[in-house]
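Marked as duplicate of an earlier ticket. Keeping the data here for the record.
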Amino acid sequence: MEEVIIYTDGACSGNPGPGGWGTILMYKDNKKEISGGLKNTTNNVMELTAVIEGLKLLKFPCNVHLYSDSAYVVNAFNQNWIKNWVKNITNHLHILLFRYKISMVKFNRKHLIKKR
């Protein structure tokens, strides 16, 4: 099965407050960067949105190595919290989880900057 790497990050100025998210997808020699934001949101929503938007871009079944600096997101995957969440923003995540084999890795943002 093909391998895809996704790096995600989200942040918020105030909590709630204006926030943004960014995602980098890497597949073979291809790299795609996407980002967005909301005027009134929370840090956790931005972290999850980065993951959801990255997974939504995948076009075929694959193994996904998903990197996040968010303990909230990493624990949601590694401790299976997401399987108990319902509706709202995570509903998209539920749908996407069934399409891909995802391994979640906690990383330090500084590692990503060095690789770019």
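See parent ticket for discussion. The first strand starts at residue 3 and ends at 12.
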